Amino acid sequence: MAYPTIDKPYGLKPINLIGGQVFAGATRxxxxxxxxGTDIFYGDVxxxxxxxxxxxxxxDTTVSATGVVGVFLGCQFTNPSTKQIQFQQYWPAGTVAAxxxxxxxxxxxxxxxxxxxxxxxxxxxxxxxxxxxxxxxxQNAGSTVTGNSAVAIDGTSANTTASLPIRIVxxxxxxxxxxxxxxxxxxxxxxxxxxxxxxYTGGDTPTVATTTVITGGHQYxxxxxx
Length: 226
Prior knowledge:
By secondary structure, this protein is mostly beta strands. About 0% of the residues lie in helices and about 40% in strands. The chain starts with 12 loop residues before the first strand and ends in an 11-residue tail after the last strand.
């Protein structure tokens, strides 16, 4: 049986949850500010800003200090021309609509399928050894024709670095090549991580003051808030 060729990245696609829990398609509707000036495509990574509205997350090797909230799965708003409710695959930058809302896969336990690249949109194959490692995102621009994301993971970045935002938990065998390597992986959000900064105080008997902050990960698990 022939399986499809993955010739370009397609963003993060929800499949199921950690532990084999079923993903029933549940999403949370999160407000988008009227005239928000950045395109957001189906499968893009998003977060909630300090204003309480949805914005596109653009980080790759790290994400916002407050973390990410999930993946964008379309939106709805009142079309300013027709005055009718419109459902759309992507958010067109600058759309004026006071009632705009995004549909977001926001479960911290969500698992996603994603394509791996060597850089940009160049799909590449990697071995089973990537399972259990952390990787960076590749924030390619999506398509205003299809409305779909082109976000991918960078297979060359695989490491144990805690600040990398994505954890690989499995491979997708259906699109493996003849050598047994993989261009698609199952991934999850990595945990928030601690960063400690030490400052040496002056005086005859200097001491060390250490400040620890929690950063990254999923916003619902990050205790620092937005």
